[in-house]
Amino acid sequence: MMTVHRLSAGDGYSYYIRETVSADQSRGKGQELGDYYTESGNPPGLWMGSGIELLGVSGAVSEEQMRALYGEGLHPDAERIIAEHIANGASAKKAVKAARLGRAYMQFNQTETVFGRRFKEEMERHARTEGRAATVAERSAMRGKVGAVLFREEYGRRPESKEELGRFIKQQEGAKPRNAVAGFDLVFAAPKSVSVLWALGDETLRKTIEQAHVQAIGDTVRWLEQHALMTRTGVNGIAQEDVRKGLIATRFRHYDSRHSEPMLHDHVVVANKVMGLDGKWRTLDGELLYAQNVPASELYNQRVVEEVCQRLGLRAEPREVTPGRRPVMEIAGVGFDLIEAHSSRSVSIKERTAELVDQYRREHGYEPSQKVLIALTQQATLDTRPDKKTARPLADLRTEWRRNAIETFGNRRVDGLLGDARAAAASTRPHPAALAHIDIEKAAREVLTTVDDYRSVWGRRQVLAEARRWVMAATKGAILGGDLADRITQRVLSVEAINITPADLNPQFAPLMRADGTSIYRRRETELFTSTAVLAAEDRIVAAARTDVIPAVSKPTYKRIEEAYQQSHPDRRLDAGQRALAEAFATGEKLVIAGIGPAGAGKTTAMKVAADAVRAAGGRVVGLGPSARAASELSSGIESPAYVLHEWIGARERARQGHPLRTEFELGAGDVIIIDEAGMAGSKRIAAVVAEAEAAGALVRLIGDPAQLAAVESGGALRLLSNNVPIVELETVHRFRSAGEAAASLMLRSGEPEKAWTWYIDNGRVVAGTREQMQQQIFADWQRDMDAGKSAMMMADHRITVSELNALAQAYRMGAGDLDRSQTAGLHDGLQAHRGDLIVTRKNDRKNVVRGGKDFVKNGDQWVIERITHDGDLVVRHTDHGGRSMLTADYVQRWVELGYASTGHRGQGATVATGSGLVTRTTTREGAYVQLTRGRESNRLYVIVEEGQTLHDVLDAIARNAQPSLSATESIQAEQERAWGIPQLAAEYTDVHDRALSLRYQSMARNVLHAGAEAFIASEGWRRSVEGALKRAEAAGFTPERVLRTVFFERDFVGAEDLGDVLGWRIDRHVDAARGKLAELAADGTSRPLADLTDAQLDRLAERAGERRTQALGTLRQADARVASQPRTLIVDGLPVPAWPNRSFGDLTNSQLSQAIAQARRDGRSAAAQLALAQQQAQRELDAEQHAAVSRPRTDDRGAAEAVRTVPRNQRLSAGQRTAIEQARRDERAVIERLIALKKEQRLRKELTWIDRAREEWQREPGPHAAHTAGVDGDRVAAEMRANLLGQEEARERLKRAEVVEQRVRAEQRLRVVLPDAAVPEADYTAAVPEWLAARAAERDQHTPQAWVEHLRERRAVIEQRLAMAGQILADEPPHWAQALGPVPEGGTDLRAEWERTAALAEAWRAQRRVPDTAPGIGRRPAREQDAAAWDVLNNQVAETGRRSRATQVAQRRGEHLAAAGAFQQTPTRRGDADPHAAVTAQRTEATARAELKQEPEREMSADTAEQVTVKAEAETIVDAPSADMDTLDAEQEAPARTAQTTAADEPAPQHDDTDRERHQGDVRHAEERPYADIPDADLGDTLAYYAEAAEKAQELAASKEAKAADLVAALQPGGAVEQGVDERTARVQAIEDLRAASARVNELSTRQDRQQRVAAAIEERLAETSAFGRHTVRGDERTQLEQRLFDLGADTERTAEQLREARRAQETSAQRAGNPVEHDEVLAAWQRSGGSRESVLERTRAVQQRRADGAVKEAGTARREVTSLDQAAAVVRRELNHRDGQPYQQRVAEEARRIQVQQAAALQQQAQQSAQHPGPDDHQSRNGPKR
Asked: Which residues does the UniProt record annotate as the domain TrwC relaxase (predicted)?
């Protein structure tokens, strides 16, 4: 056989080379593995597989090669390759990269363990409480405390020792990383009989068998390379692609098992490395390898046996090694006793236990107690555990094996082993010559029969494996099978079986196809097949469950029996579920009724009541069970005879062959057959029972639990019935006595194991540990319960574990003295039985009767050995009924095992006090459920935890490992849902889109980088780094072309380890820098005034800004030149001197200056003369005055004379004299100053440097080539200078402004180099297929190949179609989570289409995001921003659809209520009338007439009746209908309260005065003339708008109803939709009838063909008979007649074959026209109910449709009248508006004030009334405003 195991990276390879001989040495030329015969250790490994050619390795494998390949994922010769590259100058990284085969193995590290966190918390707590750090001793104590608590939580028990706790703490502290899968270990083990021959034979025999073994391994590996070697690619590995060459593997030879038993086996270690067609190294597809394990194993078994038989002249024979399992092929003549002679550990355990018990007695002087005895048994187990095996020389092993065999069987038996095998071969048929005529068709039918007996659906590998078993059974090794199995398989799959694999909905696309023409998204070996027999059996069972029959018991009889049971069992009364089950089984009117209930629900009790009722009615109850134990349990439960299902069917098969049928197997009308544990029964067998019951008039009842272990045959009938027909389900569990255990078991059963585990763990029902610890623990607890007198059961998954538990229990009983060691007998499981042992028989033996023929030895019976005869026979007593029997020695050796422990299958159905189950990571959830539900008082689970696993890891694995038994029908549906489901289609689309993006980026790179792109695309980092970085850049808003160009030309790539990785890093860095820059701009508040410009606009602006700057710069330069050439300030003697135009006389030429000086001198002399003259004149006048005063001294003039003498001279001058003198002085000073200035200017010019003087003279002195300022007035030159300076300043400002503009433009351009090109692109989440489901980025770019774009569109169209179909399915059966979408709208409406689309998208979201089933809607909002945006859109869509759906439903209900109450009989044109908006919102959106006409007539009539009843009921209850529904939605918020208030206010109060009465009558007339006179202006416009809107909606409704009425009337015409629908039904009914007739015809012709072939074969055999002398036995006329008959038979057979082919074609054609087979019975029944003929059906359909058409016409008329009423109401409102517009202003204001007062008063009054009746918040107003 061949098994497959995973090999972890790291040191997982060390096991294979640890004990090999010369593992690191080269093997000599011609040296074989067998040449290590006498060496100590296993032979070294050898390279094998076609893939080693790619690596260039061969021969022996060294430890360094194993470490490199399996430990590190490198080339086996990595050390050499790395050294060579480093020697050539490569870096260490590049050298390692050159040796790496693809990606390095990944490691998954755990950063912090639970232990580490808790220990840290304990340390911190100690520091807080003690105020100091812990000492070493305290730290050690805290470690132990935390570790012990965590151990208890993890394993559910205390550690056995300090050593175990220490190992646990060390493991927790280490946080050992989880390694990736480095390879797969294919273990090829020769059959046991071959290993025995190899171990005990001579050297020639040994080498021959080893050669056959190697040949078989090679053939198998080559087959695996052809059929099991693929690699996974794409997103999440969704694609499966071909590889180059083949496997890379090493083969290691081992000699013995872990118990040193002979076991020739090789480990073929396959590396998890293959080369893809693109030349890249990848991992191989492990799932495919595991899937092909069974056919590969069968191929090895076939080849090794064939080679051994061919080389040694032997034959093979089938042997049933494990009861209930398929037989295995062993070498004929090698006895079973020789094969099982080496199982000796159980004997050692018993012997060691006895020694320890004797030792205990001697030391203590008394017998050991129960606790001590259990401990001694555990010690014996440890003492006899095999030591860690050390490889020994093969010669030593063979010597030891031979010695032991001779001691047991004698010299002659061992030496004659090969001769005995050859003698057995000589007597074994068939002869090789007879095998040349194997009938492939017959073989295919036999193989198919075997396969569909065990499976409902299957794949090619199952058929191939069975075909190889068939070939081995047929040839027995006489010839090589060759391709015989493949031919048989091809025949089965192409002719005999039915391919149920869903077709690929997506179109074929060459780039996505494999070499064999299949899509890379279709996994190899995933095709599914079934057979017509399986489908027919399932159809028969379902049809029987729908077939009406006469019940077995009348209801009064049943009630009487039930009441009698309830009265007689007051403490165990039937619950509601049990009563329903018993009543359905007894009084049900269906041929088949199924009941389902969890373990402990009281199914047997309910069946007992039903059986009593049947018997009370005079009927007979027959019980059937899938096993003898189940039948026995059922028989005792219902107190009726019960039989094994196989036995019941076998009796009928024998009866059909002519054997008499025993009386107890006969069926009569009214008999009830109860099949218990129906979930474990095959569908074909149940269908056979149903067929027999239907023929006999009996009834069939099925009971079981599909959540428990399923059938080993093709089953699933219970689950199929539960999904298709009404069944009875029990929900209350009665078995368990512990509170909460029933609920926990139901959670485990219903798929909520996580919650169930919590209860079991919290209540101490789960413990964990190593395999031996758990075996000891479960045995100790079981034994403790047994010693306490309780019925107990310990169960395990695997038979080996069961055998080990049996050995422990036996050793305990041996130590306790309960067994007689003097009497022993060998058992089937390799153990020895003693007197007093508990055993179980594993095969039915009807000839061995018990209790005087009342019973017989059955599979699963438990017995106690009372005596062992000297011949090895066992005298046993049944543990249940006490009957005695004798089991022969041969039966004991083949079919008897110890019975202390059992498997889950054998334990299912049993009830004990305590149950114990031993589980591993491979245990199924169904198996764990069975093991946890056997005990009434308690149920315990013992979890085996391997190294690196935790308890929760194992429990989680069990929870996920659900393997329910599915029928073929359900498998077809499930596979279609998987292949055609949105998750699969979307996943494929995502991968195609990813591949298209990759091609797009490659094309883009070639366009941008040109020739340099190829090096990057070819690098390993392109795919993982560059493409991902470009995606992120695009998501950030960058144009990928620009960012790629930017980072590529940033700098060179010299020294890059991987070009792609470096380029990707640069892109990411660029994007990160952009994000940082954006954050910086946001933080600084920097504005970007040019951000809205496009790049082209910005470039043009930059160009213009540059031009303007250039112009400004030129202007400035000209201004600078003018300023530079104009007179300037000078420096003379270190002091600044103004430019000559700014000096007083600077503009004078030199000659003019000289002249001016001369003139100034003259003017000075003249001014001095004038001053002197003025002074002289004044002096003369003063002298004259003084003289006069002195010459006339008079008394009266004394004062004047005194004044002349005392007053200063100047003061005595006259004003005119002073003025003249002052003017003369000023003139003199001015002349002097001018002269000084002129001389200063002259002196300055002389002091100037020559260059300054020359520049001034050039600028000032006229002459040739002088400046334009020469000779110009200085003021004009100064003005020009000021203008030049101003122009220079203006030029500078202009340049500054130009530079600012240019800088901003350049800054924006620089930012755009760094920042994204645009805002972050927003995905379209509102499309028919939103982008969260199917991205479209690749379609929007020119670089994506057009073929890929078209293919993506085609795939998206497929997704859209599937979404539409999914929405329809959801609308038919809305799941619980769809409540958020509201009720399902009526068909044919836009709202219904929106509901379906939204529901389909919601389901796709839930599947994609794995939203729990219990979560409503689309679950919680994701944290990721992009996912959150998609969630928001979809959630809003869900909410809006739900709001609209609920609003429509409420509106429909209200409309129906109002319609029933007559609320629409009046038009809303007067106050107090019903609101017309109710008529609009109450409209029911009608389905299209054509869709409605195709409904079945009886469904239409029942729908009409139901509608009438509903309307009537709603009309009766409308007055009591709560108003809350009317106020919750916008659609229900009708006219505001003020309308009713106004109406109430306008109602006249009772009047007693005639005047008041007259005034009131006048008001009434006024109201009739102006019904809206009291509505304020503000509301009157809203009212008019409302009526206009209502009229428009009513118009739409009327048009819709008129169109519907027209369609209904048209449909009634000849050839219309009604007649077409009936014709379609007629055609389908005819097709169904034709299909059934064709099926019957096919069966008839198949039977005839088989009969003809058998007769022809018999004639041929008769004609071929010869006498002893070689003459034909048949001669003469008789031979002529036989030959003629044979010829006629041949012609008849040909005609029959042709008729059969035609019948099958007709069957296929009818099947296509007949539609879904599940619906056939219902379609035919509906047809009969509708009349049974086309005319009758058409007449009834037309009558129904005529009524509907009449109703539609009437509804259309009503709707049209409603439009007229609303138009009239709008006209009245318009008249009122026109009337008000014509009123005088004062009058209109006064009336408006009165209206508002009236409205306010009415509002207050209504508010008071509402507060008294309904305290609470105010009603909301309608969004459409008030309505009147």
From this structure: 9-406
